[in-house]
Amino acid sequence: MAAQQRPLSPHLQIYRLPLAARLSILHRGTGVFLCLGAFALVLWLLAVAGAPEQYDRFMALAHGWPAKLFALATIFSLMLHFFTGLRHLLWDIGLGLELKQVLASNWLVVLAAGVATVALAWLAFAPGAAS
After folding, report:
1. Whole-angstrom Cα distance, residue 103 to residue 98?
2. What DSSP line would sit under 73-110, residue for residue?
């Protein structure tokens, strides 16, 4: 039997996901990334509890630009995960489910996560911040 030539359904190379779907995927991804951030926090706590040489070695590593980039990504992940999670909780109780409200809350979540990330990063990386 010969293969039939049927049109393909739209797929991700053709179909553009709505922002709500992208944020839903990012919510899951930020949750996974936050596990890496928790692992880094545990390493820091172990360094604090350990010998002074361990703490000095950790802090030398933490002051490099890759560690600062990782910290910034962790802050952003925490903020985006928080605000998308808060929105999901509101949806669970039936608030904000109208299409216009969903579209507005998409951008509100992105804006809130961005502003909170900048504010927390400024506090964390500002000159004179705890070293």
Report:
1. 9
2. HHHHHHHHHHHHHHHHHHHHTT-S-SHHHHHHHHHHHH
pLDDT (tens digit, 0 to 9) for every residue of the chain, 131 residues total?
566 777 777 777 778 899 999 999 999 999 999 999 999 999 999 999 999 999 999 999 999 999 999 999 999 999 999 999 999 999 999 999 999 999 999 999 999 999 999 999 999 998 887 65
Task: Supply the Cα-derived Rg of the chain in whole angstroms.
Answer: 21
For residue 77, the number of C-alpha atoms closer than 13 Å in the C-beta half-sphere is 18
pTM metric for this prediction: 0.86
Whether residue 124 contacts residue 75, with contact meaning beta carbons closer than 8 Å, is answered with yes
Cβ-count burial 23-46 (b if 16+ within 10 Å, e if not): beebbeebeebbeebeebeeeeee
Domains of the chain: 20-125 (1.20.1300.10)
Residue in this structure with the two tokens 């039997």, named with its chain if needed: 1
38 Cβ neighbours under 8 A, 6+ residues apart: none
